[in-house]
Amino acid sequence: MNTPPSPRARWGCWARAALLAVLLGVAIYLVARLTGVAGGGATSERFRQWWLGDETQRQALITTQRERCPGAPFVLPADGFIGLLYADPNGPYSAAAPHQGIDIFSPGAGGQTPVYAAYDGYITREDNWRSALIQRVPDDPLQPGRAIWLYYAHMADRDSNSYIEPAFPPGTRALFVPQGTLLGYTGDYNGDSLRTVSVHLHFSIVLDDGRGGYTNELEFANTLDPSPYLGMPLNYACPVETIGCVPDPVCLP
Description:
Helix content is 21%, strand content 18%. By secondary structure, the chain is α+β, with helices and mostly antiparallel strands.
């Protein structure tokens, strides 16, 4: 007579199956990125060099720009490999819901690469935010008269231990910081998602809701192309081999 598995044994089997599914998903995503299935041209080649290249190749991909590019108002908020660009339609994004900002991948472990305020503005950290800050810029330097918000995310480790500076505890509201202020350090926290991420900073520019609040950053229509603000070609449509300051950074699809 066969004894049915205990609830604990069934739970263990389910957990192992779920873990294998997550690992398979991550592997498929990385293979797609590395082989160009999930992207094309210069973007895919840069990803291959970052994940598979030697130290010299990886260092060549790192953008370090502590000063503003000529004619641009923002400073790059972190050093690193700008691997995911604005409007990238590839997985885990889509043509209907492309990437809302840029991802700056760090060469080292979490808690090592500094994150700086890209512009003067007022920092807010919601009560339940473990890894993110948002900064209100009351007067958009490229379109005076409207407010915009700068979103900085993934500043914690996978277990939600925060890398945000103690000056910005949960509940911080409208605390002014000048451009270049240290906000924290890059991490690999991804909330409750089963999809793991590498150490990086996600940075985006979010529209104001017209009532002094920020709109939902997850909706692409609520975000702006960071290229003219940083003086770099950061749109997925830009066919660039390396990313740095250029006279005309805007590339339209």
